[in-house]
User: What shape does this take?
Amino acid sequence: MKIAILSRGRRLYSTRRLHEAALARGHKSKVLDTLAFAIDNREGEPDLTYQGTPIPHFDAVIPRVGASITLYGTAVVRQFEQMGVFSVNSSQAIGVSRDKLRSIQILSRHEIGFPKTAFVHEIDQIIPTIEAMGGPPVVIKLLQGTQGIGVILADTASVAKSIIEVLQGAANQNVLIQEFVRESKGRDVRAFVVGNRVVAAMRRIAQGDEFRSNVHRGGRAEAIPKLDPEFERTALHAAQVMGLRVAGVDMLEGRDGPKLMEINSSPGLEAIERSTGIDVAGSIIELIEEEVLFPEIDIRQRLTLQSGYGVLEVPVDERSELAHKRIEETGLRERDVVILTVHRGSVSIPNPKGSRELLPGDVLLCFGKTLTLKSLAPRAPRKRRRKGNASIDEVLEGTPTALAGDEPVATLPPFGNARVGRTASRVARARDDFDDEDALDGEKEEER
Assistant: This one.
């Protein structure tokens, strides 16, 4: 195969290891600077040129897109995809994973633990939001910071408010407010996901008073020979939800289990390989071999091209007509419905036999007539309002009529008050880190 590695630094550890691993397995590999591409779009002929020359055919591409070039980098990856080239991580998955708010919103629908997280716009909502989260300390994060850049620990609600005022005002940065997991201070677990398995895991430990455990901030890494099954499940589930085939999934060791902190779509290989001794780069090349040989197709789209047919996930509970019946007894086949897969907990049973008994808790992936599938679809439960929360009518009832457009209800405190001044140096350091990320060299640029 011919494999292109998109990287701005061919001497970076991760880039070198991927190149070496590809050659070791008998493939041709070329390292290409992501920013040296030009995207050429013509009707029916999407193409790319590299340093002014049309590129040859590649079978696969490994994107090592840094955070500072996400927009252009994902556009280049997307163009490779339009040309029919397999990408280890899709352009869409890379873009979504880089936005912390969007990632959390997507993950919140799934059974994946993560610290309480809030996103507010109005300054006067900051302190009530922090109190609703359980009070300070809280962690303030820039939406697109990496390697611990733009991550600040606020000890009090008033300090948090002042920091956010500065970041949203002078720095023009959007931020998240996140619960501080005390029991995991200065420690986290990184699971390296390749395909449908965790190939390596390490624990990162901060040094001194630093609460951020990133290796590039002085933290040390130690191997985890056998990752706890719940941490492994969380890492795999999170990577699948985000659509990432290769991911570094960072988790905090919470009192009640893993708390997802971040998913990195371009994780560095140096710390994980040196701490564990595992050939992670080789696993990535092996994944490419499998995927190019068996290319991924949009199964839902292919199966629903025929009018009147569709694909649906059907959960089975005690009240279901399917519960405690063998598949052949359900009569689904006679009703033109085929069960493609039975999901039972963490186990998937593909192409189940007719003698397979369906149990409460199973989730069936079915293909068949839309009308029949609709009769099997469960009704969505009505969500109850949390106890103690006011309804929107109650909130609006107490809202001053000035919101209707008469005149301002109140004036925000002027920028530059005493509280803001006291935290300016702390915010300035965070902002400098974020603005200077392009100056980082070595593996730091890679992981961004």
In short: The radius of gyration is 25 Å. The longest helix spans residues 418-435.
